[in-house]
Each structure stands twice: as C-alpha cells, then as structure tokens.
Amino acid sequence: xxxxxxxxxxxxxxxxxxxxxxxxxxxxxxxxxxxxxxxxxxxxxxxxxxxxxxxxxxxxxxxxxxxxxxxxxxxxxxxxxxxxxxxxxxxxxxxxxxxxxxxxxxxxxxxxxxxxx
Length: 117
Fold this sequence. Notes:
Helix content: 25-40%
Largest sheet: 6 strands, antiparallel
Strand order of the largest sheet: 1-2-3-4-6-5
Shape: globular
C-alpha cells in the first residue's frame, strides 16, 4: 500500500471523513472520532497509525517496523514505519477493524444519525 491507496481505502468506509491535522497528517474519522492517521511527509518516522484490539496490539508491536503509537499506545494504537511492513490485505483488514471499533464506541444517537443519513 501507499499513501494514496490508504486514503482511498479509508474514505471508502461509510461516512468516513478526512482532515489535515498537525500541519500535514491525514486524519481519518468516523463521527468525529479518529480511526487512522497517515503521514504525508516522506521523512516521517511513522507512515500509518491505527487502533487495534489489545491482543492485536501485543502481537503487532512484537514485529519489526511496528511500534506503539506515540501518545495513543494506551488506547491500543500502533504505528507502521513503512507501508510494506505488513501485506496489503492485512493492512486493509486492520484499518477496517479500526473503523468498526471506533464506530461501535460512538453514541447510539450519533450511530443512528449516521446510519439514517
């Protein structure tokens, strides 16, 4: 995967939005809550960060090229040093899982508003 394919994939989820934050990072959200962050700078230490389950967090952070996400590790976010650290199919599955976990944590009212839109 690369930045453009990540962007396209994240925005393919229902009601997903993107916003440039922290000067130059793409932040992908559902209902105003982040589910993924992609760096746009070529010199960024991490290219992609996302939320995962506690079990997946423990598994992924044992792999080379994957680290606990700065400032967000306590919420089980991981960061990839390069897009090719994981196979494209696995990255897509993890991004979808992140989106779904964040969506499930939204309020009932907000979920209903999004689903009815």
